[in-house]
Amino acid sequence: MDLQSRTGYIGTSMPRKEDRRLLLGQGQYIADLTLPGMLHAAFVRSNVPHARIKSVDLSRAAAVPGVRFVMSGIELAKELPPELERVHPLSRVWRETIPHKIFQPREPVLAWDKVRHVGEAVAVVVADTPYLAEDAAELVEVDYDLLPPVVDPEAAMRPDSPLLHDRYGTNTLVEFSIAKGDTDQAFARAPRTLKRRIYHHRYGAVPMECRGVAAAYDSRADAVTIWSSTQVVHRVRGEAALILGLPEARVRLEENFVKAKADYQKTIAELTELCQFARKNGIMALEAKAKAHHDPFTRKGLTLVVDGIDPAMLLSIMETELESFEEHSKIPIPVLESAGAYAPTIGIIGAVLGLIHVMENLDDPSKLGSGIAVAFVATIYGLVIANVICLPLGSKLKQRVTAMVHEKNMILQGLVALQNGENPHFLGQRLRAFLAESSHGKEGAH
């Protein structure tokens, strides 16, 4: 019996699970979104790999009818001083025991001093339609002072190589050394050593839609909702909150292709009913409903509404409550992610020990099998623990926390609307905009 017959997977073309709704036109891309008063941005990107930016002329683009806003990286740097370093803290044990030199440059929103690769954004044009924005972007003139490109990683490490980040004095951004035992002596004693140079080809994804983003700002809540074609929703949310100067609780990120849960509709219906009830019977009539509500977050908010607290104070208190809830809910996530990150390393250590056993017994083939088995099984265990258990659980928990925070954000908007005596119908429409549903028979964002 061949391997394919025994496993049913290896060598078999497996049906994809994600295609059905895309083929039926039920998927949603960033380009499908239609938001009230939506404007479209196009970026002017570098056509050279390495150069200093001398000037950016936006005058012709700004004069195009339908263009609402233009800005270069030089102008943005004046309004929003760039964060030059990325903060990625290392553990105390790592810092104290492992010799290392790590630089973490942050890629600018728009390049302002120099460009470091072809395609780096140097200016943005905002217009009524995407076509107007793209046409106007082609009118932007950028004057570069060309610098030698850096295209080979080994050449980049030479002392005479052009520097991409001048302030570091080197192109080597990460350097550390981990050693255990006498490696030189182990190689000297080994009956056989092997040295190989391994090359890996360059590859790239070919998505149906490239990276895109849409955003809507709610001035009443001082909050922003972002729709993004990304797989790292928490990182995008954190970066956006940092740049915008907002608490993460006020930045909601909607990952495209994630359908809204049915419970969201139930939550919206409940909030509009409470709003209708309060308009008919008065705020004080909500006291009984507040005491009987099953959700502690909603119960506390309704109690504050009944107490007649100022809407701004209500928003502040409940946002603090929401931030505390989110931080507490996220506690297990880094534990699972760390376990997932270290599990393959543990597997590799087991594999190395198994291979050491093999090397020690090269003269006795009968003892090679156990060492090879240890190496294989250790590697498999590491991969399974990481990719079947820890990382999927961490990902699922992230999705769950995101969904719960999203729902509580809607609840918070409903509570503020209750306090302000907002029309239930308008409230329902506004809350549905949170869902970012597709335009096929859904009401989100309209």
Terminal Cα span: 58 Å
What is the CA-based Rg, rounded? Answer: 28 Å
Query: Oligomeric status of the shown chains?
Result: single chain
Strand content: 5-15%
**Global shape:** globular
Number of strands: 11
Question: Structural class, judged by helices and strands?
Answer: alpha+beta
- Contiguous uncertain segments of 5+ residues: 258-262, 436-446
Helix share of residues? 40-55%
Residue-averaged pLDDT: 80
Major beta-sheet overview: 3 strands, antiparallel
- Quickly count the helices: 16
State the domain count: 3
Spatial sequence of strands, sheet with the most strands: 1-6-3
Return the string of H and E elements. HHEEHEHHEEEHEHEHEEHEHHHHHHH
Task: Record the SSE blueprint.
Blueprint lengths: L2 H5 L12 H4 L16 E6 L5 E7 L1 H4 L4 E6 H7 L12 H6 L2 E3 L11 E2 L5 E7 L2 H8 L3 E6 L6 H4 L17 E3 L6 H7 L23 E6 L4 E6 L4 H12 L6 E5 L6 H20 L5 H6 L3 H11 L4 H19 L2 H29 L7 H53 L3 H9 L14
Parallel strand pairs: 10-11
Antiparallel strand pairs: 1-6, 2-5, 2-7, 3-6, 4-8, 9-10
Q: Can you give a write-up of this model?
A:
46% of the residues lie in helices and 13% in strands. A hairpin with a 4-residue loop joins strand 9 and strand 10. With 446 residues, the protein is α+β, with helices and mostly antiparallel strands. The C terminus is likely disordered. The longest helix is centred in the last third of the chain and has 53 residues. The chain has 3 domains: 161 residues, Aldehyde Oxidoreductase, domain 3, CATH 3.90.1170.50; 50 residues, 2-Layer Sandwich (Aldehyde Oxidoreductase, domain 4), CATH 3.30.365; 185 residues. It contains 16 helices and 11 strands.
